[in-house]
Write a structure and sequence with these properties.
heterodimer; A: 285 residues; mainly alpha; MetI-like fold; globular; B: alpha+beta; 6-stranded mixed beta sheet; 5-stranded antiparallel beta sheet; 20 strands; ABC transporter permease (chain A); transmembrane (chain A)
């Protein structure tokens, strides 16, 4: 083999292990899932499924689980809005105002990740419980009716989603705000931009890559999540993740679970591409 | 011009007792100066001398510890940067990377709500010879082009004072020379007061009407470039603006219009008008190009003064040859001899005399 030929082959050789891994552990199961979503819905795990290209599974699941589907994106969207309100100022403060506290604050953002997602959500269950101090206090100051609850409400689920995925939004935002050259803000100020205008015309557009990345990293897991609705909500708050979970593990209705999984993936992919295309064009804000 | 006229009358820029301390360090120390309206003023100094801090205080990006900044009769010391009729060309240019060249230039106009901006921006791009560059991104431009966008972006606002923070520092020599001429042309054309900060003495001399040499937060000397060069006020200025030969000596008072100085075991005289001290320890200065090299003391022209020594080095510089002459007293003098083709090279190791017309010498107080 000539040196040139080896040189050309090298990138492919380097790609080989990763590609094989992806094919085996992602490609094959995905194809399997796609096939399962088209199985005859009248079959069962015990009697076996027949492949009948049952495309009707898709409209069926949308019809059956429309409330959970819309709730998923509604809750995830609401949580995203809350997380942006909390996360942007937080990332901004850490990146630009924290000085020597910067690293400590960053550790604080990431620290909750050191414990399990489940444990953290269970902790919220305790905090929000009817007999907890928080509910007691809110009832005492009449912000909550005497029989009012926090747990098992949409509020608790959205709060849980916001809390659990906030670091995924904050970290990319922090990275892009940290990179922002402060001299550009001085230049804006020199060119008659008030602090508000400088933020709108310089800081915000230049933090857009972080904003897009953070939004996606937040929204994707949040819309597919089922733990928060399970632990902090009731079946009335169930999201599409809960339905998929029960389709596979409780009801053992594989075609339905697979169809819902694919639907969720399609919607998320559409959101991602929409987001990235908007980010690619100018003057979004 | 519509909507561009300023309501406040322009005027001289005055800094009064301006001081900026960073902890115990005084970056700018009780600095006072006046920059005439429409003049090209250069603040010259080594890095860390406080010149950029001074500029930033004029722009409002740095708050003075004490002192005032006045524009005409108006005290602008407390004004936020975005309320000052002052614009800056930053050393790093600080162009907005997410905006086109056009939008960069239009930025200031838009923030002040001036519409339409097209005419002004196009005219300004044409002034800096960037016609047709409006749709490009700053990242697509060369250093010199970016520099001109930064200039256009500041000038389009018709500031009363334009501040330039080493704007040519990042450019290569040829481009820098061209931009120096260009900047001077533009300044003459728009008639705006330019305050130019630089560490490059050649840049300051060629461009500015008035140069202020800064050292350790203070102004050492201020005046027309030729005046400062020909008659520096301190040893720092004498060596920062070009080179000087300084001989330590003792002045013994005035005699017949000249200050009499003893240095290197000989007596010299300097006209009173070129002496900063008349008595006590002094430094006798002569510029290297004002010295002439002759073979021996006999050949020194009538009325000239001289020191003798051994030629220790000769470096050919193209336009001239620089000789180093070591005197018997241990001083080393630098002599520039123009390569005009009329002088014969002096060999290293030979004895020679460096002579000068006393009217070209200057006398500094040794404490300066």
């Amino acid at each position: 083999m000539t040196r040139l030929a080896r040189h050309r082959l090298l990138p492919y050789l380097l790609l080989l292990p990763g590609t094989a891994w992806l094919l085996l552990f992602f490609g094959v199961p995905l194809a399997q899932l796609a096939a399962a979503s088209l199985y005859d819905p009248t079959g069962s795990l015990s009697t076996g499924y027949a492949m009948t290209w049952a495309l009707g599974n898709y409209p069926d699941v949308v019809q059956a689980y429309w409330p959970q589907l819309s709730r998923s994106f509604g809750y995830a969207g609401l949580a995203l809005a809350l997380a942006l309100l909390l996360g942007y100022p937080l990332a901004y403060a850490i990146a630009r105002k924290a000085g020597r506290w910067k690293n400590l604050l960053l550790v604080c953002v990431v620290a909750p990740m050191f414990t399990s997602f489940l444990v953290r959500t269970l902790a919220w269950k305790t905090i929000l419980s009817d007999s907890g101090a928080l509910v007691g206090l809110l009832r005492d100051v009449h912000l909550l009716a005497p029989d009012g609850r926090l747990l098992a409400t949409p509020f608790a689920v959205v709060l849980g989603l916001t809390y659990n995925f906030l670091p995924f939004l904050v970290l990319p935002l922090y990275a892009s705000l940290e990179r922002l050259d402060h001299r550009l803000l001085e230049a804006a100020s020199d060119l008659y931009a008030s602090p508000v205008q400088a933020f709108r015309r310089v800081t915000l557009p230049l933090s857009r890559p972080g904003l897009v990345a953070g939004t996606l990293l937040f929204f994707i897991p949040a819309s597919g999540d089922y733990v928060n609705a399970e632990l902090l909500g009731t079946p009335n708050e169930y999201m599409i993740g809960n339905v998929i979970d029960s389709a596979f593990l409780v009801r053992l209705d594989y075609p339905q679970g697979a169809a819902l999984s694919f639907l969720l993936m399609a919607v998320i992919l559409a959101v991602v591409f929409g987001c990235l295309r908007r980010a690619g064009t100018e003057e979004v804000w | 011009m519509t909507g561009m006229a300023r309501e406040t009358p322009a005027g001289d820029l005055r800094l009064a007792n301006l001081t900026r301390r960073f902890g115990a360090l005084s970056a700018v120390d009780d600095l006072s100066l006046t920059v005439g309206q429409g003049s090209f003023f250069a603040l010259l100094g080594a890095s860390g001398c406080g010149k950029t801090t001074t500029l930033r205080m004029i722009a409002g990006l740095e708050e003075p510890t004490s002192g005032r900044v006045l524009l005409g009769d108006r005290d602008i010391t407390a004004l936020r940067p975005y309320r000052r009729p002052v614009n800056t060309v930053f050393q790093s240019y600080a162009l907005f990377p997410h905006l086109s060249v056009f939008e960069n230039v239009a930025f200031g106009l838009r923030r002040r709500g001036i519409r339409p901006v097209d005419g002004e921006v196009t005219r300004m791009l044409s002034l800096v010879q960037l016609d047709g560059y409006g749709s490009r991104r700053p990242a697509q431009l060369s250093g010199g082009e970016q520099q001109r966008v930064a200039l256009a972006r500041a000038l389009v606002n018709r500031p009363q004072v334009l501040l330039l923070d080493e704007p040519l520092g990042a450019l290569d020599l040829t481009l820098r020379r061209r931009m120096q001429v260009e900047l001077k042309r533009i300044q003459t054309e728009v008639g705006v007061t330019f305050v130019h900060v630089t560490h490059d003495q050649e840049e300051a001399i060629t461009m500015a009407d008035t140069v202020a040499v800064m050292n350790a937060g203070r102004i050492e000397q201020q005046g027309a470039p030729a005046d400062i060069y020909e008659f520096p006020a301190t040893a720092f200025v004498a060596n920062f603006l070009g080179q000087s030969n300084l001989l330590a000596g003792e002045a013994a008072g005035v005699s017949g219009g000249d200050v009499v100085v003893t240095a290197q075991g000989a007596r010299f005289s300097v006209p009173v008008g070129r002496a900063r001290a008349e008595r006590g320890p002094v430094q006798l200065g002569v510029r290297p190009e004002k010295l002439r090299l002759v073979g021996s003391a006999d050949q020194v022209p009538q009325g000239h003064q001289h020191v003798t020594g051994v030629v220790t080095d000769a470096s050919y510089l193209g336009v001239s040859t620089q000789y180093l002459l070591r005197t018997g007293w241990g001083a080393e003098l630098s002599v520039f001899v123009a390569n005009s083709g009329t002088s014969t090279p002096v060999p290293v190791g030979s004895t020679a005399a460096a002579c000068w017309d006393p009217r070209h010498a200057f006398l500094l107080s040794a404490s300066s």
